[in-house]
Amino acid sequence: MPLSTRIQLDRPALSPVIAGCWRMADWGWTPMERLRWIEQCLDRGVTTFDHADIYGGYTVEALFGEALALAPHLRHRMQLVSKCGIQLLHPARPEHRLKSYDTSGEHLVASVENSLRALHTDRLDLLLIHRPDPLMNPFEVAETFTRLHAAGKVRAFGVSNFTPSQFALLHQSVPLVTNQIELHPLHRAPLHDGTLDQLLGLNLRPMVWSPLAGGRLFTGTAPDALRVRAALEDIGRRHGVSPATVAYAWLMRHPSRPQPLVGSQRIAALDEALAALGLVMDAQTWHELWSAGEGAEVA
């Protein structure tokens, strides 16, 4: 698709902190309990909810949609994000012979239709390709995205876990608005491999999954985790905030303005992330955490 014919999209205004729904199937909640969690998120200004078709063995979107159906008026207050492109070997998808990737137009359209039905909505605010697919045809993906946008089924598009070159390949055919990546003091590669440089140059905000390293910042026993934990606790004492708040503030300090996903049922976990919005972290403190993760000072 030539650049001159690229679709023009409005970037959805995602909340600075995003509610991750990955584990919702494990929470064991009733529809009313799920609705109450959604309402508590919205009341705090956490208006963006992150999904993927595969979460919970293809069940989480339906669990969320079941709760949303109890209060459909809430839909206009939120942004729904979903991801697709991974095929799991799962009883819910008996046609899958093994775990694989599929970014064909047919699969993307089918995934969107399934997500819309499950979420009880007529549109996704943002659709992401979940993982890089070695067989991805960027022109087919761009054409499919264009059709989904024209039909009013998806407002904007992005990717997840893409390298800068993979992002550029698709972005030249269809405008992407984000790359959802892993970033925390134990995984600093995006700071140095061009991922954040690219997004900053395009004035695009990264979404960040596993901002607390899947809990390893507070439970890990590896030397880097122990060093980072000590630094988080020390900085937290100096500023009167929790170590988790310090970890979120470290992410948000980057000029690309990352938006962390908080995948917890605990509203207190969201509050810790939101508190980071008010914590001004100077460059020396930021490098203190970087050095703790690296195990060495900057060169």
Provide a descriptive summary of the structure in words.
- It is a single chain.
- The protein has 299 residues and is an alpha/beta fold.
- The protein has a domain at 11-177: NADP-dependent oxidoreductase domain (TIM Barrel).
- The chain has helices at residues 31-43, 55-58, 60-68, 105-119, 138-150, 164-171, 195-201, 216-219, 223-239, 243-252, 267-275, 283-294; strands at residues 18-20, 48-50, 79-84, 86-87, 100-101, 126-129, 157-160, 179-182, 207-209, 259-262.
- An eight-stranded parallel barrel has the order 1-2-3-6-7-8-9-10. The chain has a two-stranded antiparallel sheet with strand order 4-5.
- Helix 5 links the parallel strand 6 and strand 7.
- Helix 3 (60-68) crosses helix 4 (105-119), helix 4 runs parallel beside helix 5 (138-150) and helix 9 (223-239) packs antiparallel against helix 12 (283-294).
- It is globular, with a radius of gyration of 19 Å.
- The termini are far apart.
- The model has no long low-confidence stretch (mean pLDDT 96).
Beta-strand percent range: 5-15%
User: Can you say what the CATH homologous superfamily of the domain at 11-177 is?
Assistant: NADP-dependent oxidoreductase domain
How many separate helices?
12
Q: For the largest sheet, list the strands in their spatial order.
A: 1-2-3-6-7-8-9-10
CATH topology of the domain at 11-177: TIM Barrel
Secondary-structure blueprint:
Layout (H helix, E strand, L loop, with lengths): L17 E3 L10 H13 L4 E3 L4 H4 L1 H9 L10 E6 L1 E2 L12 E2 L3 H15 L6 E4 L8 H13 L6 E4 L3 H8 L7 E4 L12 H7 L5 E3 L6 H4 L3 H17 L3 H10 L6 E4 L4 H9 L7 H12 L5
Helix pairs in contact: 1-3, 3-4, 4-5, 9-10, 9-12, 10-11
